């Protein structure tokens, strides 16, 4: 064979070898994949079996362990709670024993103190007894000397008694002789006068009684004449003295309003730079602003209550806004003035509607609203006028008179107190002229002007309005004097009960018809509490004047305090 044939054979052999190798690798790869798949399936089976066995083991052992652990923990918690409760009870018992020991120690200290004081008292008494013994010895010596002197004087007195016996016999004889002479002279005087001694005595007494009556009558007449001459002068003096004593405090109470501020820094903003804000505020409101050392407060002072209310509202708005300067002040004051004017008209209209009146002039309605900001002897003027109006209406209805006129006159009777202009006339006359100005009925005008007797009463409703005014002002609690007396009575009740030993607190309740007394349980026992109530009621009954009866309740309680730590 030639070389080409050999080469071809070799090429065929190489190709066959390559094909064989490729087939062998393909067969091996296929067999390997099958083996890998079978191994993966086996591994999955083993893993699932392992998971089942693990789940079974967990259920058998881990759940049992959890139940055991929960039971153990529950038992531990119960044991711990029981231990805590036992510890708390032990601590409470220990605190109670400690408190008892403290009380015992306090009692021992008190007894030691009492024993010490008793020892001091005994020593003092011993010293006083020794001093008294020495004084007794001195007195005994003096008594012996006085006894000896008395014996000597007794002998002298016996001698003097013998001398006086003889002198007494002579005196008796002279007295009998003198009595006979007096009887003889009396008999002769009776014969001369023609009257017995008893008749003469009665005649003399009658004469003296007549003379005394004449002198008493003339003296009474002189006293009455002098009283008539000096009554007005003395009355004016008394009134002026009362005004001098009470005018200052009354003016302070009724001419100021207090505006609360958040901090004292606001005072500087109210004053402003070089005082320009406060000057602008006073010029706009006509009310003086007092900025002093009073903490967190500014005082507004002025006689006009409406202007003072406008100033109070304006200042509160400025403080809340925070913008305080002259332009803003004028704006706020104008707004507050408009609001107050609307409020005055609204109050007046509501009052007129409530009292079922009609045809009242708008200016009178506005002035009725001004009464809301005016007081008289501590009583609100609007409330007093409404009350007077209703009382006058009731009285007029009982007498068969015109209830509408009586109600109208009662509402307007103090209208002269709220006139803005300063008029130097009594308020009743000012109110009457004001009613005439606004075309009110003549009977209403007369009732308004005569309710303080400044003019003569010509209308039948005038005394009704006067009586209704007096009834409203005299109602207990309506005016300040009655309220102050009521407060003083309550304070005196509390002071009187607090003056007893062992009393800690006293409260007067039920408008002074009952007082409750809290006592210290260490100083006052139950039996002593009952006796204390009796003693307090006796003291109140002996030292106070009050209407009805006052119930005295003494309260004694024991408090035990402990702290859980």
What does this protein look like?
- By secondary structure, this protein is mainly α.
- Among the domains are: 362-478, Hypothetical protein af1432, CATH 1.10.3210.10; 490-555, ANL, C-terminal domain (GMP Synthetase, Chain A, domain 3).
- The chain is 75% helix and 6% strand.
- The chain has 14 helices and 8 strands.
- The protein has helices at 3-193, 197-254, 265-271, 276-285, 305-321, 326-354, 362-370, 381-399, 403-412, 427-437, 442-450, 461-474, 480-498, 526-543, and strands at 256-260, 288-290, 297-301, 375-376, 379-380, 503-509, 514-519, 551-555.
- Strands 1-3-2 form a 3-stranded antiparallel β-sheet. Strands 6-7-8 form a 3-stranded mixed β-sheet, covered by helices on one side.
- A hairpin with a 6-residue loop joins strand 2 and strand 3 (297-301).
- Helix 4 runs parallel beside helix 6 and helix 9 packs across helix 12 (461-474).
- The longest helix has 191 residues, at 3-193.
Short characterization:
With 565 residues, the protein is mainly α. The chain is built from 14 helices and eight strands.
Strand order of the largest sheet: 1-3-2
CATH topology-level fold name of the domain at 362-478: Hypothetical protein af1432
Indicate the radius of gyration in whole angstroms.
Answer: 56 Å
CATH architecture assignment of the domain at 362-478: Orthogonal Bundle
Per DSSP E runs of 2 or more residues, the count of β-strands stands at: 8
The CATH class of the domain at 362-478 turns out to be Mainly Alpha
Distance between the termini: 120 Å
Q: What is the CATH H-level superfamily of the domain at 362-478?
A: Hypothetical protein af1432
Q: What sequence of helices (H) and strands (E) makes up the elements?
A: HHEHHEEHHHEEHHHHHHEEHE
Average residue pLDDT: 77
Number of helices: 14
Proportion in helices = over 70%
Strand content: 5-15%
How can the largest sheet be summarized? 3 strands, antiparallel
Low-confidence stretches: 246-250
Mass-distribution shape: flat
**Class based on secondary structure composition and strand pairing:** mainly alpha
């Amino acid at each position: 064979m030639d070389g080409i044939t050999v080469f071809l054979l070799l090429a065929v052999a190489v190709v066959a070898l390559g094909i064989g190798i490729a087939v062998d690798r393909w067969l091996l790869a296929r067999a390997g994949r099958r083996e890998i798949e079978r191994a993966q399936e086996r591994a999955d089976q083993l893993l699932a079996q392992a998971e089942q066995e693990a789940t079974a083991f967990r259920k058998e052992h881990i759940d049992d362990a959890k139940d055991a652990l929960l039971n153990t923990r529950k038992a531990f918690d119960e044991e711990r709670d029981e231990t805590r409760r036992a510890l708390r009870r032990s601590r409470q018992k220990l605190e109670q024993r400690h408190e008892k020991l403290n009380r015992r120690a306090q009692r021992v200290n008190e007894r030691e103190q009492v024993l010490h004081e008793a020892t001091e008292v005994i020593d003092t008494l011993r010293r006083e007894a020794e001093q008294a013994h020495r004084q007794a010895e001195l007195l005994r010596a003096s008594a012996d000397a006085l006894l000896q002197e008395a014996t000597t004087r007794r002998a002298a007195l016996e001698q003097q008694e013998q001398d006086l016996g003889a002198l007494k016999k002579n005196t008796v004889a002279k007295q009998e002789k003198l009595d006979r002479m007096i009887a003889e002279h009396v008999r002769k005087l009776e014969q001369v006068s023609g009257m017995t001694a008893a008749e003469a005595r009665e005649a003399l007494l009658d004469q003296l009684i007549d003379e005394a009556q004449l002198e008493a009558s003339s003296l009474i007449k002189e006293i009455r004449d002098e009283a008539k001459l000096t009554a007005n002068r003395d009355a004016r003096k008394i009134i002026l003295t009362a005004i001098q004593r009470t005018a200052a405090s009354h003016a302070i109470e009724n001419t100021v309003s207090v505006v609360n501020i958040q901090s004292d820094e606001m005072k500087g903003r109210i004053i402003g730079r070089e005082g320009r804000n406060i000057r602008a505020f006073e010029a706009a409101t006509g009310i003086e602003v007092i900025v002093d050392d009073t903490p967190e407060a500014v005082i507004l002072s002025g006689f006009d209550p409406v202007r003072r209310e406008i100033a109070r509202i304006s200042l509160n708005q400025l403080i809340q806004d925070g913008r305080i300067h002259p332009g803003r002040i004028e704006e706020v004051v104008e707004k507050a003035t408009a609001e107050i004017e609307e409020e005055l008209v609204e109050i007046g209209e509501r009052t007129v509607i409530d009292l079922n009146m009609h045809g009242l002039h708008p200016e009178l309605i506005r002035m009725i609203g001004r009464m809301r900001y005016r007081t008289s002897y501590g009583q609100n003027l609007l409330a007093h006028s409404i009350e007077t109006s209703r009382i006058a209406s009731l009285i007029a209805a009982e007498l068969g008179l015109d209830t509408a006129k009586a109600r109208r006159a009662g509402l307007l009777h103090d209208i002269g107190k709220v006139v803005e202009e300063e008029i130097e006339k009594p308020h009743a006359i000012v109110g009457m002229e004001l009613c005439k100005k606004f075309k009110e009925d003549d009977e209403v005008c007369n009732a308004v002007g005569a309710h303080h007797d400044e003019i003569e009463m010509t209308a039948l409703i005038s005394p009704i309005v006067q009586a209704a005014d007096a009834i409203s002002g005299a109602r207990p609690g309506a005016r300040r004097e009655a309220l102050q007396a009521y407060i003083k009575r309550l304070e005196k009740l509390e002071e009187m009960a607090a003056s007893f030993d062992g009393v800690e607190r006293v409260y007067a309740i039920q408008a002074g018809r009952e007082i409750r007394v809290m006592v210290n349980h260490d100083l006052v026992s139950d039996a002593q509490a009952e006796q204390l109530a009796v003693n307090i009621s006796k003291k109140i009954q002996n030292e106070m004047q009050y209407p009805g009866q006052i119930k005295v309740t003494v309260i004694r309680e024991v408090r035990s305090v402990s702290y859980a730590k």
